[in-house]
Amino acid sequence: MTTVEQSIDVDVPARVAYNQWTRFESFPEFMDGVESITQVDDTHTHWVTDIAGVTREFDAEITEQHPDERIAWTSTDGTSHAGVVTFHKLTDTSSRVMVQLDWSPGNITEKVGSALGVDERQVRADLNRFKDLVEQKGEASGWRGDVPRS
User: Fold this and answer.
1) What's the number of domains the chain is made of?
2) Fewer CB near the terminus (10 Å): N or C of the chain?
3) Is position 38 within any domain?
4) Residue 122: its H or E element
């Protein structure tokens, strides 16, 4: 199992960062390798990724969600992964977005990439693109429902 932990400070309130993050269909705008995400219902998403020429499709379930605070999920098929994103108020106009991902590299290429820190660099780059996106867009709407922890 590989664990990646990264954070980034953004110049928007936690509410705005949270709202943008819950626009799952917009992930391809800042996540390299994510082709599409479809929100099936309030707690289920379907992902299509293309990383290093390897296309994968899988489903994920939101296991906990609290507006402006956190979103946790786990895969329900395909690639084994889980994660949590938390949103922290720094000031009235800035916040910190923290990401923790746990996943199991499948093939030898993924295992070597993980050992060399490719995952860490990828999440860092994705967070930098998220920062640019959310700061440029400003106010965003997203799903603000609450999913209690199972």
Assistant:
1) 1
2) C
3) no
4) helix 118-137
